[in-house]
Structure formats: structure tokens, C-alpha cells
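Input record, target 12 of the design panel.
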């Protein structure tokens, strides 16, 4: 899952690990992520307030609006 929040931050999740667990979240440069998954470049135009999800690395990205729960 890739989230481009309404504060213009980018968050990426693997769908397997709890991002709220201690030491589970890190800050990385986007170049490192693109090296691991070049398909992320297709999301460069994802507007703020949206997220993209896919069921596997080969599946197409599905884009929808997104806001923080609350």
C-alpha cells in the first residue's frame, strides 16, 4: 500500500507487518524503494489524499481516496 496523505507525506506499507509496533517504521529515501520495486514510479502522480493498493507485485495498482481514521 502506498499512501500520499493530505499533508503531502508518503507512507509505504508491506501489508504484512504492524507499522505501529516498536521499531517497525523507518524513514528511507525514495531511491532505495525504487531500487527494490521500480513499479512504484507509476505512482509518482498519485494526488494527496489518495492511496494505491495491489494484491501482489504483479497486480495492477488500485487507487482510491484516503484519509486518516478518526
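The sequence produced for target 12 reads:
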Amino acid at each position: 500500500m502506498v499512501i500520499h496523505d493530505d499533508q503531502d507525506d508518503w507512507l509505504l506499507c508491506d501489508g504484512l507487518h504492524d507499522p505501529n509496533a516498536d521499531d517497525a517504521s523507518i524513514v528511507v529515501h525514495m531511491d532505495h524503494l525504487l531500487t527494490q520495486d521500480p513499479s512504484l514510479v507509476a505512482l509518482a502522480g498519485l494526488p494527496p489524499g489518495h492511496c494505491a493498493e495491489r494484491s501482489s507485485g504483479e497486480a495492477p495498482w488500485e487507487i482510491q481516496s484516503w484519509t486518516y481514521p478518526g
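Helices lie at 30-36.
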